[in-house]
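Help!! Second protein's tokens look totally different from the first
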Amino acid sequence: MENDQTYYKKKVLLSTLRQIEDVHKHEGYVVKNLWKIVALGVLLSLAIPAQGLGESDFKGKSILIIMEAEYWQVSLIIGSLYTVFIVIFHFGWKLQDYLYLKELNEKKDRLIKELGLLIVDEKIN
């Protein structure tokens, strides 16, 4: 029975180590893909002002007509909102990754202590 429990805990520990590695590999998404995000923001900022709104009270009217503003003003507003949302998402994802890593590291330390193992370079010895 003890061997089965030890085997299970080792498998959980290996899974936890892989999850930690996976989080490290995918953290910093906004920074790693900055040019793609900027390109999407520019595209949205240039395309949205002229688009007509779909199913709403303003059906068929563009944001330019509704806001009674010039094209460049609406583009700047959309670009600013996009930037604010991306910054909020960046810090939100960063916080989420930090909390998840903290939880995984606590789980890893607890399992190592229970198993009495020595971990060197994230490999079980």
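Here's the second one for comparison:
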Amino acid sequence: MAMPGGMGSPALEDSMGIDDIVDKAKEVAGDAVENTKEFVGDAVDNTKEFVGDVADKVKDTTHNLAEKVADATADDEEPPAAGTTPPAAM
């Protein structure tokens, strides 16, 4: 039953019964739940991918840094023992 001025419920104006309204509400709620599950699932997948990419980058950077340190220290002579004179000073 419509009220003057468009103030009535659209469900009542369309002659929907209470069972139709409940069924429609369940359908809308179910769709919302499915959409939320999909959204959250996508977010989880994206997060896993991002974390994996970051872990790979950290591993690569750490490996590169270790190589640079190894290269930088490979040319160094061992320091003279304590209490001795380095060869260049003689």
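Reply: Different proteins will give different token patterns, so don't panic. The radius of gyration is 36 Å.
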